[in-house]
Amino acid sequence: MGNSLPIGVFDSGVGGLTVAKEIMSQLPNEKIIYFGDTARVPYGNKSRETVTAYSRQIVKFLLSKRVKAIVIACNTASAFALETIRHEIPVPIIGVVKPGAKTASIATRNGRIGVIGTEGTVNSGIYSEFLHEISPEIKVFGQACPLFVPLVEEGWADDLITEEIARRYLSGLLDKDIDTVVLGCTHYPLLKRVIGKVVGESVVLVNPAYESARELKRVLGEEELLNEEKEVPHHIFYVSDGAEKFREFANSILPCEIIETKDVNVKTF
């Protein structure tokens, strides 16, 4: 019975849909209950204490929906809240940082890795910490890109202004002779074409959303929680504000039509 329970996924907004998309692709039997904290986005400029408090509320909400595992589909929340919450809940929980860091360590050829993300993620040093655990010789260069999230949320991923802003943000990293860039915010895969154009084909882009879905599959397998049922899964999406706008955006990037999207006040949890 537990194997057929849904997976909880949450993010500060729409960025975590990139993780949901990868889960749908790699784990097609699994049901997803997604929460986007659209009323309080972005998390990247908020304190560790605030992000942890928000994350606790959302996790309590997801647990009320009887999820069998939780994915923190937000780099900032993964950096600030994951280790604290891991010890407070009865189900497996994973973040997006460690899977992305592991893949970047494998992908780099010269040991010089750029990490782009929100101010919270970059300033936390969490990617540097994980990468140096893997290999102390790796050099990590961080660059906060705070305008990327609102550009994605506004639907301007392919706008010329987005490319110009990307060039300004990434020019300093390219001067460091990096050969790998971690897309350290779940919104950023939606800017992959623009970022790839700016950094060039010789630089590998690591998408933690893809790697996190792989890690989830591994964890569910170890815990014997994989859903073997072949029925088409029913996904449910919740947000803290703007359900209709969120549903329209979700339907533009997900492989299935999202019919059920609801507003919910997680502050009560």
User: How many helical elements?
Assistant: 11
Q: In the CATH scheme, what's the topology name of the largest domain? A: Rossmann fold
How many beta-strand runs? 10
CATH class of the largest domain: Alpha Beta
Strand order of the largest sheet: 4-3-1-2-9-10
Corresponding CATH architecture of the largest domain: 3-Layer(aba) Sandwich
What this model shows, in words?
The protein is of the alpha/beta class and 269 residues long. The chain folds into two domains: 2-95 and 210-268, 3-Layer(aba) Sandwich (Rossmann fold); 97-208, Rossmann fold (3-Layer(aba) Sandwich), CATH 3.40.50. It has helices at 17-26, 48-64, 75-86, 97-107, 119-124, 126-134, 148-153, 160-174, 192-199, 208-222, 243-253, and strands at 7-11, 32-36, 69-72, 93-94, 112-117, 139-144, 180-184, 204-206, 236-239, 261-263. The chain has a six-stranded parallel β-sheet with strand order 4-3-1-2-9-10, with helices on both faces. α1 crosses α10 (208-222). The protein starts with 6 loop residues before the first strand and ends in a 6-residue tail after the last strand. The mean pLDDT is 94.
List the helices and strands and how they pair.
Elements (H helix, E strand, L loop, with lengths): L6 E5 L5 H10 L5 E5 L11 H17 L4 E4 L2 H12 L6 E2 L2 H11 L4 E6 L1 H6 L1 H9 L4 E6 L3 H6 L6 H15 L5 E5 L7 H8 L4 E3 L1 H15 L13 E4 L3 H11 L7 E3 L6
Parallel strand pairs: 1-2, 1-3, 2-9, 3-4, 5-6, 5-7, 7-8, 9-10
Helix pairs in contact: 1-10, 2-3, 4-6, 4-10, 8-9
